[in-house]
C-alpha cells in the first residue's frame, strides 16, 4: 500500500525523513557506481613463480598482455574516467590477462606525489579505482613505481626535489641512484604505495592479488657509471626493501635488456656498441635473488634507423630468443617482453608491417610456452581507446580498429589458453574467440 505524504508526516517527522532520504539519494548518485560494481569482488589468487615459469592456482600461467600507462591519469578526472573501464573491458574481451601501467606521477599535472611524502588523495583514489576496476574485469596489473625518463616526473623530479631542498649531492639525474637523501625519498614512496589501503575495496595493495607484480623503474640507465656498479647497488637495495614489505607479489627491475660491458653478448646480440655503456646489464641485474623475473623491451626503430623491415624482424627474433635462452640456462627465471612496438613513422609504413612484427614476438612466446620454457609473456606498447589521439605516440593502436590486428592478438590468447588452460576470468570471452579451447 502506498501511504500519502500526510500519513507519513505524522508528528512533524516528514521533513527530517525526506531530508535524510534526499541525502542518501545524493550519496548513491555520487558513489553508487562503486557500491554496485565492487560490492562482490571476484575471487583471485596471487600469481607465483616456480623456476622458469609463472603459476596460478597450481597451473602454468603464460601472459598475453598490453601497456596502457595512462590509466591512473585518466581515472583522476571525471570526464576521462570511463576510458579506464572501456580499456580494461576491451582487454578482457581479447583474452588478455595482465596490463602494465604507471603507479607514479611525480610533480606536474595530476601528480600522485606532489612533493616527497606529500600525496594528492584524489589521484591516489584514481589508482584505487584502476585496481578495483581491473579486479572486476578479471585483469591483473603490473605496476611500475618510477620512471627513468622525464615523463611523469621520474628520477629527474626526485633529483630536483633534493636539489631544491639543498640536500642533493648533485644535479645529475643519475644521482637518483646513489644520493642517500633521494634513496630515502624513494623508499618512503615505495612504503606508502605498498601499504596503501584501497578506498574502494578496503584491501592494502601489498595484499591484493589483482596486482600481478611490481616493476622498480621503467628502463633504468646510469650512464655516468657504465661499469654498472651504481645501478646494481640500487637494484639490490630497493628490491630488498620492497620484499621486506611485500613478500606476496612478484618483482622485476624494468630493464630494456641490454648486455653490459663484461657480457660476451655485448658485441653479438646488443644492437650497437652504445648499448653496453648504459650502466645496465641484463644478466647481472636480473640475477639478484629478490628479483623474481626478467624484463626486456623491443624497439628496433629506436635502435636501427637505416634497416629495412626484414632486417629488423630478423634481428628482433635473435634478440628475443637470446633472452629466453639466458633465462632457461643461466637465470632460471621467467622473462617477459614488457614493451614492444613498431613505429608508424617509418618510411612507407603499412599497418600490416606492425602485424608481422607482433607475430614474430607472439610465435616465439608460444613456442617457449609449448615447451614449458621461460618465455612467459609479452606486452604490446601501447593500447588506447577512441578519443585519445593526444596521448598517442608513433607506436599506439586501438586494436579493434583493424580487424587483422585484432585477430592476431586474440589468436595468441587462444593459443596460450590451449597450452595452460582457460582461466576463470577468460571463460566467457574465449568461448566466442576460440570455441575449440577448453
UniProtKB/TrEMBL annotation:
Pfam families: GH5_mannosidase. GO terms for biological process: polysaccharide catabolic process. It comes from the Eukaryota. Keywords: Glycosidase, Hydrolase, Membrane, Secreted, Transmembrane, Transmembrane helix. It is found in: Secreted. The keyword Transmembrane helix applies. One of its GO terms (cellular component) is extracellular region. The chain crosses the membrane at residues 12-31. Its EC number is 3.2.1.78. Residues 45-383 form the Glycoside hydrolase family domain. It catalyses: Random hydrolysis of (1->4)-beta-D-mannosidic linkages in mannans, galactomannans and glucomannans. Its main location: secreted. Belongs to the glycosyl hydrolase 5 (cellulase A) family. This is mannan endo-1,4-beta-mannosidase. It comes from Rhododendron griersonianum.
